[in-house]
Amino acid sequence: MKGLYTALMCSFDEKGNVNEKGLREIVRYNIDVQQVDGLYVNGSTGENFLISKEQKKQIFDVVKNEAGDDVKLIAQVGALNLDEAVELAQYVTQLGYNAISAVTPFYYKFDFDEIKDYYNAILDSVDNDLIIYSIPALTGVNMNLEQFGELFENEKVIGVKFTAPDFFLLERIRHAYPDKLIYSGFDEMLLSASVLNVDGAIGSTFNVNGKRAKQIFELAQNGQIEEAREVQKVTNDLIAEILDNGLYPTIKEILKYKDVDAGFCRKPMKSLTQEGVTKAEQIAERHL
Ligand code: NGF
């Protein structure tokens, strides 16, 4: 399960329906052109928190059907409605997803016992492994080393997708739990995380910049830090412009520029203005 995973985008039509043809094209582009090791499906980048349970199932179906066994597949099933998370975990396990992942429960400021119960309830219901999805900036859930350790006591918790700029905590987790998988979540910090010996990374910009991300990761693993730093610099020039123009809609426009039918974002995310679309195309021309 090690390696580079794209946090997969989903293509929606203007009304917010899943555009299956477009989604298949995004899957193929990631596998055939970006050559990533796997896909992380229905995460933040997949606009998971803006869609219905039925749409989540539809996306899990289409991605598995298109990807087959070409790459590893991780299904993000976390939801505030625990029954839904359990149902989705069972659904994707039957479909043959290699692992599940679940975001820490958010909004209600759950205490750690409640967070632990949430993960155990999901895991008790399926015969599959789980990767914790920790993204404190969006969830407000900050777990410390001991709390990660308590979650790791469940053998089915095989790792964490660590989307935080806290390299002290990342190093402590790496040192304390060498057998657990750690995936770096911030693409602009991939080199720094790779130096700390993470097992892989999961990122939104890999949809369009997966090859470079893999280079950074592999160069760092080989100890070629100077070369890795150069590729991270080029990557961060790209990421800075994408963030400035609007993260998800800009990645979609870049995909469209590459003839991938990436469609629209779900409301309330706004679409790019014509000026923003032109900017996205210029970013693609200049950096990709
Ligand atoms: O999009 C976010 C929100 N983070 C992603 C990634 O951690 C999300 C990251 O790639 C993800 O994996 C998912 O879809 O679940 C950033 O977009 C990237 O580093 C640019 O900042 O923070």
UniProtKB/TrEMBL annotation:
Pathway: Amino-sugar metabolism; N-acetylneuraminate degradation; D-fructose 6-phosphate from N-acetylneuraminate: step 1/5
Family stated for the protein in its record: Belongs to the DapA family. NanA subfamily.
Binding sites annotated in the UniProt record for aceneuramate: S44, T45, T163, G185, D187, E188, S204
Class of the enzyme per the UniProt entry, highest EC level: lyase
Catalytic site positions: Y133, K161
One GO term of the biological process aspect: N-acetylneuraminate catabolic process
Function, in words: Catalyzes the reversible aldol cleavage of N-acetylneuraminic acid (sialic acid; Neu5Ac) to form pyruvate and N-acetylmannosamine (ManNAc) via a Schiff base intermediate.
EC number: 4.1.3.3
Subunit structure: Homotetramer.
Gene3D superfamilies for this protein: Aldolase class I
Cellular compartments per GO CC: cytosol
Name of one Pfam family that matches: DHDPS
GO MF terms held by the record: N-acetylneuraminate lyase activity
Database matches in InterPro entries: Aldolase_TIM (IPR013785), DapA-like (IPR002220), NanA (IPR005264), Schiff_base-form_aldolases_AS (IPR020625), Schiff_base-form_aldolases_CS (IPR020624)
Reactions accelerated catalytically: aceneuramate = aldehydo-N-acetyl-D-mannosamine + pyruvate
Binding site for pyruvate: T45, I202
Localization annotation: Cytoplasm
Name of protein: N-acetylneuraminate lyase
UniProtKB keywords: Carbohydrate metabolism, Cytoplasm, Lyase, Schiff base
PROSITE patterns the UniProt entry points to: DHDPS_1, DHDPS_2
